[in-house]
Amino acid sequence: NRKFHPADTVVDCGHGVLIGGGSFQVMAGPCSVEGDNLLAIAREVKEAGATMLRGGAFKPRTSPYANQGMGAEGLRLLHEAGTELGMPVVTEIMDARDVQLFEDMEVDVLQVGARNMQNFTLLKELGKLRRPVLLKRGMSATIDEWLMSAEYIMAGGNENVVLCERGVRTFETRTRNTFDTNAIAVAHHLSHLPVVGDPSHATGYTRYVVSAALAATAAGADGLEIEVHDRPEHAWSDGAQALTPKQFRNAMRRIELVRQAV
Ligand code: PEP
Ligand code: MN
């Protein structure tokens, strides 16, 4: 924590992209990698100012009958798009047994999803690597529990951890989750790690994503993770919260204005 580590950690995500300590990065792309549309979406988000490409290949779906993602083939498509466009890729790892596969596929940033925030076996394995880890806050996790999960990774020697606030579960049903912008300021106060906001999962609806993105930016987030899809109504997952590339371009303009104001 800050007592032992007063300076902000800056995490090198690859391809020259740094996050933290004043470097603000936007990671954008589809919830699920679905095939050839990935490269087209990646081009659009890069053009709009995103510096990192996100996409899920291994998907933690609530229902076992829902599409579980492309798996290794999805990692290959991400690597291809990231290499072609010079963007680091961030993608979710669910299972400690997949670490070698993710290494072989040269995944730049390993995302630990909300559902796996306390998968301690996975966290310990990631602690042995030097690859950056994007650690999402669990849907019912306190800030202290979230920070302790980051400690699990760092205790193994991997200090390249980026925290991600993605909303928590509350009594409210009008949004998918309740975005805890407080957590961004609190995590910055207590921890030296970069903190990003995920307005997509935090709200669950396209119409609310931009306001949450602006709020996270104003609250001092070091970056954002935003879901973008070329045809949200056909998305394999989370289409209801996806921005189209055009909506994303507009959002980026407004995010930049808030960045300049704060
Ligand atoms: C995702 O990023 O697509 C995802 C599943 O996020 P979370 O773990 O925050 O629900
Ligand atoms: Mn998603």
Automatic annotation (TrEMBL):
<feature type="domain" description="DAHP synthetase I/KDSA">
    <location>
        <begin position="10"/>
        <end position="250"/>
    </location>
</feature>
<dbReference type="GO" id="GO:0009073">
    <property type="term" value="P:aromatic amino acid family biosynthetic process"/>
</dbReference>
<dbReference type="GO" id="GO:0016740">
    <property type="term" value="F:transferase activity"/>
</dbReference>
<keyword id="KW-0808">Transferase</keyword>
<dbReference type="GO" id="GO:0016832">
    <property type="term" value="F:aldehyde-lyase activity"/>
</dbReference>
<protein>
    <submittedName>
        <fullName>3-deoxy-7-phosphoheptulonate synthase</fullName>
    </submittedName>
</protein>
